[in-house]
Design a protein that fits this description.
- With 318 residues, this protein is α/β, with parallel strands linked by helices.
- It has helices at 9-18, 20-34, 42-54, 59-76, 84-98, 128-141, 156-169, 182-195, 212-229, 247-259, 278-286, 307-315, and strands at 116-121, 146-150, 173-174, 200-204, 236-242, 264-268, 290-294, 302-304.
- Helix 10 links the parallel strand 5 and strand 6.
């Protein structure tokens, strides 16, 4: 059942504005890379490689993109620098498609069971709790009954923050005392949601990575306890990353992927940063689809990621 409508004009304008700094940074660098050149040669490709790496696309993903452009140059014998943006656009779109990062215009909930359980992970400060609040708002706006679980019991502030969001959105928050067992909170949340015929459950988790073994054990325990109430849970493990940190976000993603199975990504704070290229690299390297991108403080500024619209905004006017 489709929850969110197709990409509309207002969302596209928000996306265009949010990616403006990335676009300006990338294409001003590309313009310098091809200055004085009429065709794409080895020098242009070397310069383009440097541009993409410095734009937080990542080394491995950049090499893939350059290889594809080289194949095109070898096949066509002569490729003008004026064609480069179009070829680059196609290579990026192809990569996003291959990594299942497609054109998400809605989030379909399964009809065979409910609640749909989303376990949200990510380090402190990336916008994890805000993302949960905005998702709760969007689900509720779509007519769904939502429950929040405050399973980050490591910080008192985390419980307070999610309660503030619960109050703001008007959805119940299941919580316990600071220091309580996170798995116990997750259990209570799903049990309450199930008893009250809720559609969606969003569960916050502790945002720390200093002890990977402890994190892995905690997440495994949460998942195991969830399954006692809902054998299908969690339906989704959503990793929230701060796009403005560039390659640091990629490193966090790799660390989380090493300790638990990540099924989708939310990349926040893309507005106001020139590091939007990280969306391409993280998706490519992790083989995990980007599902949401954060483009501002407003409730509607958390958007379902749409590959076609993202690439269009990135290359708009170029």
């Amino acid at each position: 059942m489709a929850l969110f409508g197709l990409f509309n004009k207002q969302k596209k304008e928000t996306l265009d504005k949010g990616l403006e700094k990335t676009k300006q940074s990338v294409f001003s660098k590309i313009a310098r890379a091809v200055a004085g050149k009429s065709k794409v040669d080895d020098d242009v490709l070397d310069n383009l490689e440097e541009v993409l790496i410095s734009s937080d696309v990542g080394v491995d993903t950049t090499i893939k993109i350059i290889d594809r452009i080289q194949e095109r140059v070898a096949r066509d014998k002569y490729v003008s620098t004026s064609e480069l943006n179009g070829i680059l656009r196609g290579a990026i779109a192809d990569l996003l498609t291959e990594n299942n990062t497609g054109d998400n215009s809605n989030w379909d909930l399964p009809t065979d069971h409910k609640p749909y359980v989303i376990l949200v992970v990510g380090v402190n400060g990336v916008g994890k709790t805000t993302t949960i609040g905005k998702l709760a708002y969007q689900f509720k706006k779509a007519g769904k009954k939502v429950y929040l679980g405050a399973a980050d019991t490591f910080r008192a502030a985390a419980v307070e923050q999610i309660q503030i969001w619960g109050d703001r959105v008007g959805v119940p928050v299941v919580k316990q005392q600071m220091g309580s067992d996170p798995a116990s909170v997750a259990f209570d949340t799903i049990q309450s949601a199930k008893a009250n015929n809720a559609d969606v459950v969003l569960i916050d988790t502790a945002g720390r990575l200093h002890n990977k073994v402890g994190l892995m054990n905690e997440l495994k325990k949460i998942k195991d306890v969830m399954k006692k109430v809902m054998p299908t849970a969690p339906d989704e493990v959503l990793l929230v990353l701060d796009g403005s940190t560039g390659q640091n976000a990629f490193e966090q993603a790799k660390q989380f992927a090493a300790v638990t199975q990540i099924t989708s990504l939310a990349i926040t704070k893309l507005d106001g940063t020139a590091k939007g290229g990280v969306v391409i690299g993280i998706s490519d390297q992790l083989k995990v689809p980007v599902k949401y991108i954060g483009l501002g403080e407003g409730m509607e500024d958390l958007q379902l990621f749409n590959k076609k619209e993202f690439v269009d905004s990135l290359f708009k006017g170029n």
